[in-house]
Amino acid sequence: MTVPTRAPDRLSSPISAGVGESAVRPDGTLKVTGEFAYSSDLWMDGMLWGATLRSPHAYARIVHLDTTRALAATGVFAVLTHEDVPGRNAYGLEHKDQPVLASDVVRYQGEPVAIVAADHPQTARRAVALIDVEYDLLDPVVDPSTALDEATPRLHPDGNLVRHVRIRKGNDAVQADVVVTADYEVGMQDQAFLGPESGLAVPAEDGSVDLFVATQWLHVDRGQIAPALGLDEDQVRITLSGVGGAFGAREDLSMQVHACMLALRTRRPVKVVYSREESFFGHVHRHPARMHYEHGADRDGRLVYVKAEIILDGGAYASSTPAVVANAATLGSGPYAVDNVTIDSYGVYTNNPPCGAMRGFGAVQAAFGYESQMDRLAEAVGIDPVEIRVRNGLAEGGTTAAGQVIDSAAPVAELVRWVHDLPMPPPSSGDLRSMPGGVSNSTHGEGVVRGVGYGVGIKNICFSEGFDDYSTARVRLELVAGEPVASVHTSAVEVGQGLVTLLAQIARTELGVQQVTIEPADTSVGSAGSTSASRQTYVTGGAVQAVCQQVRKRLLERRPGYVGSPGDMPLRELLVDGPVEETVEWRHRPTTPLDPETGQGSPHVQLAFAAHRAVVDVDTELGLVKVVALDCAQDVGRAMNPQAVVGQIHGGSAQGLGLAVMEEIQVVDGLLRNPSFTDYLIPTILDMPPMQVEVLELADPHAPYGLRGVGEPPTISSTPAIVAAIRAATGLELTRIPVRPEHLTGT
Amino acid sequence: MRVKLRINGEDRVADDVWPGESLLYVLRERLGLPGAKNACEQGECGSCTVYLDSLPVCSCLVAAGQAEDRDVVTVEGLAAGDALDPVQQAFVDAGAVQCGFCTPGLIVSVHDLLERDPAPSDADVREALAGNLCRCTGYEMILGAVRLAAERRVGG
Ligand code: FES
Ligand code: FES
Q1: With an 8 Å Cβ cutoff, are B135 and A497 in contact?
Q2: Residue of chain A whose Cα is closest to the Cα of B81
Q3: Superfamily of domain B3-78, CATH level 4
Q4: Nearby residues of A222 by Cβ (< 8 Å), 6 or more positions away
Q5: pLDDT band at A1 (very low <50, low <70, confident <90, very high)
Q6: What is the pLDDT of residues A149-164, one digit of tens each?
Q7: Ligand 1 lined by B41 (C-beta under 6 Å)
Q8: Residue A498: its pLDDT value, please?
């Protein structure tokens, strides 16, 4: 294979510490010197640039498509349409309902219609503008609440329902003394990773292709790319390039098939890099949700029942909507003990942008609903928000909405108490920079009110509902220049979370070696599963631990009777006879599907919990919010790398803050209004408060090292905590997120 | 057109540059220096920050022609051989790097801040870095890295 310049590196710096310590990232130096090879940095002699023509309409029939003018332009090497898709023109994570290139109909604004390869990115973009398409406009379906009505046009052959999950736990006719009811709405959030969708496809002589790309699951990409190209899976080789953040947005394919098609057609390497604007159209978003919640409790605020209807707008294609719907349902009553739960969770097709995975995945939307409800309930029974959560919090031995018995720590009450007991921030200093509005000088404290709020969340870790969730790890231990070196090869994707550090730490701990090389992730080793669902440390970490133990066993067969700890193994001596290499496929314990009628079962491998306390200052005259403090307590089972754990909690909390007060993709009549960082705001360093973080380590006996997935829980609880704090400051109901200034000023 | 400029202390020439190409594009795609990043190419994220005649700029907003005969320093030019600049080392040590896509731009911005103000307060740091987006870290460890770098620069 021809390898591009700036191909992914082997990471071979010595690993500074083992499991449980804050080892330094092996890719850290490359990243601070600018040498780390991200997918948008790939370069190869003679490469072409790809560009994509996208539908400007939310719903339309393509009546005419003509590429003649584009093809005639100087510097253009190929212009391809649906007619050129070599294999099956359909892909998708759960349903193959999405075309590689639209043929007769476009179902969302931004849907790819044609692709171009040219010798300069600007030439490619200009050629895209020369493609003639005539559309016949159709009335877009944009309201998820009416998507299932008989009168609504069907966007897909089986209708507009992607999935309906029903939870029927206990008795749905039970009555309660105190009842609180409300409707909630969650806007569409974007993952907004910084590294744009990008990659390089390199055609091989024999008609196969190598793809270098930033993604979240190499093998599932390949399983979709190969059939679309009409190739066997082994004719598509994928190597992970540097990933500039993911957060779910790279679970679905973006440019992968397009780049491969152009490369195979032109016989030249083809690089595709989305612009920021194109990125907003090029990946799925977090599902907007409309939720109706009814909570019944006794006079002490103990939950008697929870009822909810949750509608998630999946947009034009299914993506991972089915799993998001299940999460919203099975986690829909939150981290609380309640015997009677009735939930209907729906995912529907519309002509809005497709929605799929984003950090928190269904649990985020539900949490805004149930946490808002808990505060209402607290008020109705006259107790405070901490007490209502302590009284109802799940604990080990309790059951979830799905009837699953929790068989490891579920310290909900403790987490809430922890954040409650953390020191409060000082009162406002009067420094303009600490005011809502900051140096725009909009207030010196007039009209500013402080509020405090709490939120707790629950998240499933790993893939659920009986999915065969595994990871493959290969470890080779050998002497290099007389020194024992372990090399770890998996296809698990590092997105920034620090997986490469952890895998090296595990090898160091299990094998007692200081030199650990992390090989680039690629499809020459078995699947590692997805970097999502906070699962990679658990599953690939588990696989690396298992394979290291296997290597150790092999090694010890060379010295029967050895009874020391792994750290003391005489590695040099044992390795003189040659290297040891083992490959292991490791699975977590099985889960069960949901009962289709009742939604009951044991769908989840592990549940994780985090709690936040937010303190806000609100300028009630202008509707500006300053989050003054955002403190978190989370149980991580075992802090495999404490610094990385806290980093995940900080970053997750920040994304939750974004959803609470600023981040929303504005969609009007199916059209996106703000596809840029000018108009889609994510938190800056000025928006983020200092964060105190308490990390609990209550080992899960079923998990490797007792660890519990870390990445998602903090994203779930920070949003409701902030909104609760704004409510406490203003007395407003605030049933929609993100909270905008006009919600606060009533203008 | 041809653009001549000095990058990281070396005279460099880029040929066949289109008038519309940015300094960022020329660095990344014509001169083999992809350290400066391309997260938005609209001046909103700071990932492309480089020094232009000692002032930090968003290189995506500078037309390549504007850099003619000027001095550019990119993240690739900050380390002295194998020894990382204290700002770079502090980012690694303090856990300020996750995906790292924001990192090159932040490192140049922090380098500039500490040149101007060796002991900035947290509020000053926040003000100075408000133009550098990071989606991964929530900025806490970036603040920690700035404090650490400031300490080490003074100390050593
Ligand atoms: S790439 Fe230049 S500011 Fe974002
Ligand atoms: S570390 Fe990923 S954007 Fe900052």
Answers
A1: no
A2: A33
A3: Beta-grasp domain (3.10.20.30)
A4: A233, A236, A238, A523
A5: low
A6: 999 999 999 999 999 9
A7: yes
A8: 97
